[in-house]
Specification:
lysine biosynthesis; DAP_epimerase_DapF; alpha+beta; 18-stranded mixed sheet; binds ligand LBFN2T5F; isomerase; 276 residues
């Protein structure tokens, strides 16, 4: 089977994007792991699959696979690339599209010049939404780790996030603590582990150890989760610039019950064809 694809990235969080509308695509987890291998395959953090919508009124279905082969619910940087991809490939002429994901509908809008804005939906904070094992809902939780407790906020952006405050992201123990949080028994479906440094009420620095992909140069849903946790804790204003290692995005959130709006770049690196 020959598969056409685009290699894209959002702030260095990189993707193989496949048109599953005009091509018949069925990939086993081991094929995704091989394609995602940076030495033996194409290399990516996530594989994004564009499919026809299942429900009337929606434009597409958006499926996301981490490079460990597992299918997940959401990807924010990918959603911006998705919006650019369907326009560039002529799959739609609309700039704002309604896209089905494994956890509800999101609305990406391609603004042109490599910029996209996405209504990422309403964040959820109940432990069962992630899921996270806790007796009751709280703003922060003590998470026992081998080196002692760490304090986390939790949020679901469709996918699960645990966010901790650090003094300096450059010296935060992301590689050591990230995997322990990712696979912590309190998160039965594992979790994305965010490390947030508050610069001021409108700016944070962020690193994310992603579930199923390791630390990436940026994580869009991680940025949304960090900002909403920071706003709920009274540390941030409603509009925040997030500095990731791969660049900046802007996250806006008006508070409980409102959707999170993410604005940032989407880049196509090259297009290719691979024999599977
Ligand atoms: N890079 C993404 C998130 C991808 C999925 C995540 N690793 C998970 O397992 O939930 C983003 O930009 O949001």
């Amino acid at each position: 089977m020959k598969l056409k694809f685009s290699k894209m990235h959002g702030l260095g969080n990189d993707f193989m994007v496949i048109d599953g509308v005009r091509q018949a695509v069925s990939l086993a987890p081991e094929q995704i792991r091989l394609l995602g291998n940076r030495q033996l395959g194409i290399g990516f953090d996530q594989l994004l699959l564009v499919e026809p919508a299942r429900e009337p009124g929606h434009d597409f279905r958006y499926r996301i696979f981490n490079n460990d082969g597992g299918e997940v619910e959401q990807c924010g940087n990918g959603a911006r690339c998705f919006a650019k991809f369907v326009r560039d490939q002529g799959l739609t002429g609309k700039s704002r599209i309604e896209v089905e994901t494994a956890r509800g509908v999101i609305s990406p809008e391609y603004l042109g010049d490599g910029l996209a804005r996405v209504d990422m939906g309403v964040p959820r904070f109940k432990p069962a939404d992630l899921p996270f094992l806790a007796d009751a809902e709280a703003l922060t939780y003590a998470l026992p780790l081998s080196g002692g407790d760490c304090e986390i906020g939790i949020a679901s952006m469709g996918n699960p996030h645990a966010v901790q405050l650090v003094d300096d992201v450059d010296t935060a123990p992301v590689a050591e603590v990230g995997p322990e949080i990712e696979s912590h028994p309190s998160f039965p479906q594992r979790v994305n582990a965010g490390f947030m440094q508050i610069v001021n009420r409108g700016e944070i620095r962020l690193r994310v150890y992603e579930r199923g992909a390791g630390e990436t140069l940026a994580c869009g849903t991680g940025a949304c989760a960090a900002v909403v946790c920071g706003i709920r804790q009274g540390l941030l204003d409603a509009r925040v610039t997030v500095h990731a290692r791969g660049g900046d995005i802007v996250i806006e959130w008006a508070g409980e019950g409102s959707p999170v709006i993410m604005t940032g770049p989407a880049v196509t690196v090259f297009q290719g064809e691979i024999e599977l």
